[in-house]
Amino acid sequence: MAYPQNNENTNASLDTSWSISDIDLSQIASDYGIPLLKAVVVLIVGLWVIKLLTKLVRRSMNKSSFDESLKRFLISIVSNLLKVLLLISVLGMLGVEMTSFIALIGAAGLAIGVALSGTLQNFAGGVMLLIFKPFKLGDLITAQGHTGVVKEIQVFVTTLLSPDNKTILIPNGPLSNGDITNFTTEGTIRVDLTVGIGYGENIKAARAALIKTMEDHPRVLDDPAPFVGVSELGDSSVNLAVRPHCRPEHYWDVYFDIYEQGKEALDNAGIEIPFPQLDLHQK
Hints:
Layout: H1 2-62, H2 68-93, H3 98-115, H4 117-132, E1 140-143, E2 146-153, E3 157-161, E4 167-171, H5 172-177, E5 180-182, E6 189-190, E7 193-197, H6 203-216, E8 227-233, E9 238-243, E10 245-246, H7 251-268
Helix pairs in contact: 1-2, 6-7
């Protein structure tokens, strides 16, 4: 009679274990499954909303006069910030303690900031350049001891193309804090040349020859008008300041052409261009 009793006890034990398992699974589903499902739904919907908002921001900026580089940068900032806020919300729905999480993010941010202080300085400089725009793509500038045409403005560095066709990368931190000379802002640039003539030569004749040379050059502008004046009485020559104006992109063409053609014009006018000399007087 013992065996049937054992079977009954065994069946009762199995029924009880199944009931406990059913209760545990239901409890687990209630405690974790539903919040997880809600978090997934919020994440999917949130990403869709962020994508929609990003498109709206881009469309709004396209109607304004924002620089293209600044547009991309601001859109990236908005998108990433919204994604971080969405992530924090989803983690909060899953029961993650947000105080500790935010503190962890702050500590990590501080450590990264200290390690990348120079990079962050360049980042901040890039933001300032994109906002205040002291120059734009295609401008001829001098900065940090370099002269060249601006080819690209990135968040961390600015790329110049020098007159001798060299690519120059300048960190935006020092660039934004230093002096910047922009030759393109006004649309014209003055070419500063110096030509010396002998003390016995006619200054008016030399001026007329050089003025005509500049007026005949196709890339020298009529306004402002070319100028020639005495700039210095040197040891061996009367030095004339020759000042043509041109478009910034024609600077070097005008620079070299006026020197060459000016020399030919003075030769044709019979005006001497002296070389340095030293007179010795014997007593």
